[in-house]
Write a structure and sequence with these properties.
By secondary structure, this protein is α/β, with parallel strands linked by helices. The protein has two domains: 269 residues, Glycogen Phosphorylase B (Rossmann fold, 3-Layer(aba) Sandwich), CATH 3.40.50; 190 residues, Rossmann fold (3-Layer(aba) Sandwich). The strands form three sheets. The protein has a nine-stranded mixed sheet with strand order 3-4-5-2-1-6-7-11-12. Strand 1, helix 1 and strand 2 form a beta-alpha-beta unit. The chain starts with a strand and ends in a 7-residue tail after the last helix. The structure holds adenosine-5'-diphosphate and alpha-D-glucopyranose. The site of adenosine-5'-diphosphate has 18 residues, from helix 1, strand 13, strand 14 and helix 12.
Length: 490
């Protein structure tokens, strides 16, 4: 089986969030089971720390009739998987990947249209034609369209099918109508059942219509996308594909996220020997400048700072709880993104410097230390297509406190108020997106830690026994690839 994964990021080269982890983890798992898998991403010169070799110095990529761009193609390997990098400095050599720190780049439609078309043009240059092109999110959602319309009748792509995976349906790539011409989208496809969306071009919507198959990164999120209230506006597009729309839960790369082998934590530990975790907690408190107190629970957060993650109700919750003298706890936060959220966290830290510490920025090492050294992991997301951090937390015996949505609902079993499900519970959960519900869940977790440490320990063992390795999802993707049929869009 030949698979081409096209994405905007890949861990090991460039990462802003979980998409990068999935591109690497899934590709490596598929490679290990014998699939001829290759990945295409842009060559972001300022973020990718290596200079891969040039494979093709110049190929011309044609988007619209008047838009022909020359790109070079570099190549490297990540976890044994061949990766092609599309080089076009005017579009990819920038200080940010998607935005300038405040707003998205205005030419993102062109930047990722180029990536999508270049991936197919590259296949033609190499005379290597995949069975399936696996696209990810709005950035590569136009690719199925190119395959169907620009390469219609092409002998090499005759059997190639496309899959579009939805990691985050909130971002849709909405661009002004005139840009349609540049990207090569025909006027006849600028209709509400395809690309047209309130007088704009919606690339994700077009992708949902043209891909041969679509899937969400968890069964829970698939159901949410089909529901008008939680579909980020595109429920009609998803409902039109309901029959061939599946949910496949992401996996976890335990090669990188296992406390027994993790080289980035101060002492390794495992389910049957947890003393290393105490060591990690002390090291974390020290690293974050918090008082070293074994008798106070620590809640960790590693997150992009964005509304998706529920900060607008988490911050008032923390404000209230941190001011209270009852059952004190500490909070450590690692994150980057929205400056407004960052400023609110800095404000909380100024008020309670011995209780909450915020590290603004991106740090893989600190992310691992937080997973290892915390007692709880806070992930109260407004929506969460899958979420990886709660899956990492389970393995590190760091009980997740989550809002019961999307993939969080599929991966964390919240402890019931009467504790009746303690034999299977792995964390704490709440339903409503407000500070009362969030506060109740945090209080439930903290009081369990103080008052019923035996039940906390049971949940910790349950959590550490969970297995979310990539083996099962990789099998599910292979079955999905095989089942795809070319969809006729006339
Ligand atoms: P999302 O993709 O929505 O950001 P996920 O939970 O799926 O959420 O994945 C987030 C990934 O990005 C995890 O691997 C997490 O550790 C990592 N991450 C997020 N923010 C940071 C940060 N500031 N520093 C280091 N890693 C981060
Ligand atoms: C997105 C989602 C996250 C998911 C990740 C990988 O960034 O926000 O929930 O885990 O993609 O699929």
């Amino acid at each position: 089986m030949k698979i081409l994964v096209v994405a905007s990021e890949m861990e090991g080269l460039v990462k802003t969030g979980g998409l990068a982890d999935v591109v690497r983890g899934l590709s490596a798992a598929l490679k290990a089971s014998g699939v001829d898998i290759r990945v295409v991403i842009p060559y972001y010169k300022q973020q990718i720390k290596q200079t891969p070799d040039v494979l093709l110095p110049n190929i011309t990529v044609s988007l619209g009739a008047n838009c022909h761009l020359g790109v070079a193609v570099r190549h490297t390997e990540v976890s044994g998987v061949p990766v092609y990098l599309i080089e076009h400095d005017r579009l990819y050599d920038r200080r940010g990947i998607y935005d300038d720190g405040y707003s998205a780049f205005e030419d993102n439609g062109l930047r990722y249209g180029l990536l999508s078309k270049a991936a197919l043009t590259l296949c033609e240059s190499l005379q290597w034609f995949p069975d399936v092109v696996h696209c990810n999110d709005w950035q590569t959602a136009i690719l199925p369209y190119y395959l169907k319309r620009h390469f219609a009748g092409h002998a090499g792509f005759k059997k190639t099918r496309s899959l579009l995976t939805l990691h985050n349906g909130f971002f849709q790539g909405r661009i002004p109508n005139p840009d349609r011409i540049t990207l090569g989208i025909a006027e006849s496809d600028y209709i509400p059942s395809r690309f047209e969306d309130h007088h704009m071009v919606n690339l994700l919507k077009g992708g949902v219509a043209f891909a041969d198959g679509i899937n969400a990164v968890s069964p829970g999120y698939r159901d949410e996308l089909l529901n008008p209230e939680t579909s980020h506006g595109l429920w009609q597009a998803y409902q039109a594909r309901e029959k061939d729309f599946v949910g496949i839960l992401n996996g976890c790369d335990y090669g990188h996220w296992d406390p027994e082998t993790d080289p980035l934590i101060s002492k390794q530990f495992k389910k049957s020997a947890l003393s290393g975790k105490k060591h990690c907690k002390k090291a974390l408190q020290k690293a974050m400048g918090l008082p070293h107190k074994a008798g106070v629970p620590v809640c960790g957060i590693v997150s992009r700072l964005t509304d998706q993650k529920g900060f607008y109700y988490l911050i008032p919750t923390l404000e209230r709880l941190l001011a209270s003298q009852d059952m004190p706890f500490q909070v450590v936060i690692l994150g980057d993104g929205d400056p407004v959220i960052a400023n609110q966290l800095i404000g909380l830290q100024t008020l309670h410097p011995d209780r909450i510490r915020f590290h603004r920025g991106y740090s893989d090492a600190l992310a691992h230390e937080i997973e290892a050294g915390s007692d709880f992991f806070l992930m109260p997301s407004l929506f969460e297509p899958c979420g990886l951090n709660q899956i990492y937390s389970l393995k590190y015996g760091t009980l997740p406190i989550v809002r019961s949505v999307g993939g969080l609902k599929n991966t964390v079993v919240g402890l019931a108020d009467d504790h009746a499900n303690q034999a299977i519970a792995t964390g704490f959960s709440f339903n409503e997106a407000n500070n009362y519900a969030c506060q109740a869940a945090v209080e439930q977790a903290i009081s369990l830690w103080y008052l019923q440490p035996d039940i906390y320990a049971t949940l910790q063992q349950n959590a550490m026994s969970q297995d979310y390795s990539w083996a099962a999802p990789a099998k599910a993707y292979q079955a999905l690839y095989r089942s795809l049929k070319i969809k006729n869009v006339t």
